[in-house]
Structure prediction request, 288 residues.
Amino acid sequence: MDAYESALRLIPPRYIDICRRSCAGAEEFRLRVGQGMTALCAGRERRLPGDPLREEELLRVLEKATGASVHSAAAEMARGFVSWQGLRIGLCGVAVEHDGAFRGFRSYSSLSIRIPHEARGACDGIFRTMRDGSFVNTLILSPPGGGKTTALRELIRLFANSGRRVGVVDERGEIAAVCGARPGFDLGQACDVMSLCGKREGAMMLLRGMNEQILAMDEITQPEDLAVIREIVGCGVGILATAHAAGAVELRQRPLYASLLDEQLFTRAVLIRQTGGERRYELCALPA
Prediction:
């Protein structure tokens, strides 16, 4: 899958040549009304040359991403994003509420197009240790934008090719980038994907119907995510997931993640560190 080319098909045409010349490997494109488009490259956001964006240009991006039917994607957009060919398009604007519940947007002020990447070989070293013996529930840790989903995708592929059955709960369509019936990324031979559904619904369907040995999911962020993890652990199935934290100390400082440690739902972590512009992967034990 060429996610970068897919992202170029979404952005305003006047920026396509600029991005091809100067933004290869960008992690995100950001479009804000009244500002020039920006690209996130190697963790730094930089403005691209060009006139300020208009709201009509943002609406055209959404029309492409929803098949010219923004209204039909209202349920997904109510979660703050829309998915298209493995890209996650984050939304900001003037919200519409009814009876205290968020219903959508009246207008749009900014979009964030997140561009997924593969990192073949990046996790080979730590995987040689992880694959030995019984699987240990593992959290992948880094600050936001640090490459957690990319590492998760690579570890899913490695485990699924090693003979383990891996089920993926792809809540935002970003891990597998399913298009039609086929994942856009290679997730290995023994991998099954539940795409664009909540963590609990997806996990329960995979547990009941697919007899998985490992379940993988992105971004543990909500108290209800803990309930899902407890159910999975209670079924004797391993978990591979991601969380926002620079390391075990920061993890312990947050009440939600402290519960994960107190209950020993996860006992191992993959730490992603940026060193000299490169990502390095370190395997460590999580303290109780």
Summary: The first helix runs from residue 3 to 10. Residues 105 and 248 are 38 Å apart (CA to CA).
